[in-house]
Design brief:
- The chain has helices at 8-26, 32-46, 57-77, 90-113, 119-122, 138-153, 157-179, 186-208.
- The protein is mostly helical.
């Protein structure tokens, strides 16, 4: 079951923590490249990178490209330093936690601002009809954003730039869904989570070498 309520970012934090723990453990025995792959593989089982069969080949290609971007960004970020003293290999774990937390918070923002489902679609009862998730209230949205955005502050300026990048892309998704009057369902949420997470890492990576 997908979690899209105010505590969805907590699930993101848990998934990021699992990925970070697997990376930390794996890097004790293998190179960083192997550890990052194992971490991504483990978190993919709990998220949606390759859940089920994509609707089109373009959808599959988009997911693969996002995962490749994520892998390369995390590899580059494995040498990042935090603004405070920390054990070796901990920075990447915190970066993953912040990336997942932010992307799951942005899922909630998509649900809170999604276009209203047309009445004709809402009356569909066929098993194959796509089901849209329930809309989220403003209070739940505020709580989700607070929880989801907070970990990025631990990373300093790169984390905040990464967060800003994810937010900009998330707002782009929201604008696109509204403009096209798309009923938001799992497929759209999958894309939002995966792309905003990758953009978080890209934004952080673009900034880290300057601080």
């Amino acid at each position: 079951m997908r979690v899209t309520g105010p505590y969805a970012p907590l699930l993101g934090i848990a998934i990021g923590a699992l990925g970070g723990a697997i990376y930390w453990l794996a890097v004790q025995f293998w190179p960083s490249s192997v550890a990052v792959i194992l971490s991504i593989a483990a978190t993919a089982l709990l998220t949606t990178e390759f859940r089920g069969l994509p609707a089109t080949r373009l959808d599959l290609l988009g997911r693969v490209l996002c995962v490749l971007v994520k892998y390369n960004a995390l590899m580059a970020l494995s040498a990042a330093k935090l603004p405070f003293a920390s054990p070796a290999n901990l920075p990447l774990a915190l970066i993953m936690i912040a990336g997942y937390a932010a992307s799951f918070a942005l899922l909630v923002s998509v649900m809170a601002t999604r276009a209203r489902e047309p009445a004709a679609t809402a009356r569909q009862s066929a098993p194959t009809a796509r089901q849209s998730a329930p809309k989220i209230g403003h209070g739940a949205l505020s709580l989700a954003l607070l929880i989801g955005f907070a970990p990025a502050a631990l990373l300093g300026i790169p984390g905040l730039i990464g967060l800003a990048s994810a937010i900009v892309v998330g707002l782009g998704f929201i604008a696109f869904f509204k403009y096209k009057k798309i009923v938001v369902s799992d497929q759209e949420l999958d894309a939002t989570q995966l792309v905003t997470e990758a953009c978080f890492y890209l934004g952080a990576l673009a900034t880290w070498k300057y601080v």
